[in-house]
Here is the input.
Amino acid sequence: MTKYMGEEGDKCPFIAAISVCNPFDINATMNLMSKPSFKNRFMYAAGLTKKLIKGFVKNKPVIMAAQPDLDAEKIVKARTMNEFNEAYPVKVFGYESAEQLNISGSSVHYLKDIKVPTLFINALNDPICDKSTIPNEEIANNPYLLLACTKYGGHLAYFEGLGLKPWLPKQLAQFAQAMIEW
Here is the structure.
């Protein structure tokens, strides 16, 4: 969504936007998730890869009918997200590599062109969208962008109090209401 907003610039039809746990630089995010740590490589990246494969298998007849040149065996045997991407979306969308696909899908290079108020909420302990990939300078240089970083929250797991009450919906509603009234 944020890439689209930057691509559209002044023509973007939105009055405001909210982005939570944004992987601003998908290539950097994928590289970090590929590092040999239990948390990244064996939990999150492996889990996401399995979900992608499951989606492919579920829709395999339709996908293969539309894309008969795909190597279904290679897709199903992918062990990393980059392996999956090399075998499937890279082939379907005509990219040269998973890296090129990742860079093409990233919003980081389009942030400067966003012209609607946009709130980014990222957790500094996000295991997927690492804090090192947050483009603080690019966000600070665009008056339409606001970055809120929480110390905790993981990847979309914003809770508060002993009862683990969801924290995020209230924040999103307050920002959306403020933008509607503005």
